[in-house]
Amino acid sequence: MSGELHARDHASFLAEVHSFEFWFQSVEGYLASHPYGVTPGSELPALSGTERDALAATLSTYCVGEAAALDGASGLIGFAPNRAAKIFLATQAVDEARHLEVMLHRLAELGVDPHADYESRAHASLLAFRDRLMHFVAAKDWEAALFAQNVILESMEFAAFHSHMQTADPRTAEMLAGVLKDERRHMGFGENDLGRMLARSPATRQRLRAIRQELDVLVLSTFEDSLRELGTPASERPEVGRLYLETVARLGFER
User: What is the arithmetic mean of pLDDT over 204-231?
Assistant: First the structure.
């Protein structure tokens, strides 16, 4: 990144960190020579039938989330408030498309037709979340759509992928590690943009708190279903929900 960031004005700083150039420098290191997010030549892990079915169902749910983020980011570009936001969202749309692609490729490796309807295997709570996000996008409601996507959905995926990596087979874990790097950048954009709104408008904070209460129910229900499917012991499932809640709070959005 050019120049001394802390010596520059805020608008100039945002223009750079939301640029395609910054995006390329961020992703090049972990995308170059890693087709479909994995090291070339790495072995396909041997999974039992039960393990394969559980992973396929979970990846299908992930695909719904990534497809929702792709549609959301693409839609947000049309009514973003400034050029820097439009450019960043364009890079995010590329990220989400790539996430969807690598997950569909992993499903194909498991013997699942990547052209099949993965939504039919996804959880109802996440489908309801997707519909709520797209409602905000269709209404051109910037603060609600950005909050639902770049704070709530990204925090949900961050918590789910981070937890899943701990027990996933090496190939799936490597794929998820690359996706997580992008999620951190997406969350940062939501935190920065909405943080400025909250500083100017206490009413916005109240509105986002109400939206969060509605969406948290869907997020935590999705976690419960996904973790049960993966065979995560009931005693460990609350930890994923706690990571999600802590991530949202760390971004500056308390209940």
Answer: 90
